[in-house]
Design brief:
- By secondary structure, the protein is mainly alpha-helical.
- It contains twelve helices and no strands.
- Helix 3 packs across helix 9, helix 5 runs antiparallel to helix 6 and helix 10 crosses helix 12.
- The longest helix is centred in the C-terminal third of the chain and has 16 residues.
- The protein is globular.
């Protein structure tokens, strides 16, 4: 059994270290890394703002997610639980949130404001337990939980196998002409433990390099 990765991905040095160790585990990734060059740390603040940014990006293009987020962020205190709830649906008109996303964020803001969702405690949990704790809340599916823990808490051993960009990137790089589905990609990525988050960063970078578009707008 492999040991847990030694550092969370909260610094560029940690990303670089994990990538070196990842390539030692799977030398097939060396030419991919050579092709993309530096793989930068991608992180976002934790808390309601981090969750809100991710929810804005669910099932829409990166450009659309960015536009929605800019409009939301421009409203006074909208990225805090109390501020979001105070604005209400009427105050958020024009931001571009679908009714489903508004309901998700309002529910999350409410449980955070009431102290019923303790994000710092969840972020400190082992990864599987943290994902389970987050997905108990309506509107947080596996992808949202995985992305939050990766980008907002630096969990080092997560590979969001349901992400379409990662499926395409891994297919382009390792199985040309065939894109692995979520189940198959989980199996492929298991070989990259305990550095799967760095593998995800590498393949998102590869997707951006080869397809000239971002795979995740965070």
């Amino acid at each position: 059994m492999r040991a847990a990765a030694p550092h969370r991905l909260t610094t560029q040095e940690a990303v670089d270290l994990h990538l070196r160790q990842l390539i030692e585990l799977d030398p097939r990734l060396r030419p991919i890394h050579d092709a993309v060059g530096e793989v930068p740390l991608r992180s976002r603040p934790a808390g309601f703002a981090g969750l809100a940014r991710i929810v804005c990006g669910q099932q829409v293009s990166v450009a659309s997610a960015d536009a929605i987020w800019r409009r939301l962020e421009a409203l006074p205190a909208a990225t805090t639980p109390a501020g979001f709830l105070a604005l209400g649906e009427r105050g958020l008109q024009g931001v571009g949130l679908s009714q489903g996303k508004y309901r998700t964020l309002a529910a999350l803001a409410a449980v955070l404001a009431a102290g019923e969702l303790d994000l710092p405690a969840i972020e400190a949990m082992p990864t599987d337990a943290a994902i389970a704790a987050l997905t108990r809340h309506k509107g947080i599916g596996p992808w949202t939980a995985e992305i939050y823990l990766m980008f907002c808490a630096g969990h080092p051993d997560i590979f969001p196998a349901g992400d379409i960009a990662l499926q395409k990137a891994v297919g382009d790089a390792l199985t040309p002409g065939e894109y692995p589905d979520r189940t198959r990609l989980i199996g492929i990525a298991s070989a990259w433990a305990p550095y799967r988050a760095s593998a995800a960063l590498l393949f998102w970078r590869f997707y951006r390099t080869t397809r000239r578009r971002d795979g995740v707008g965070l």
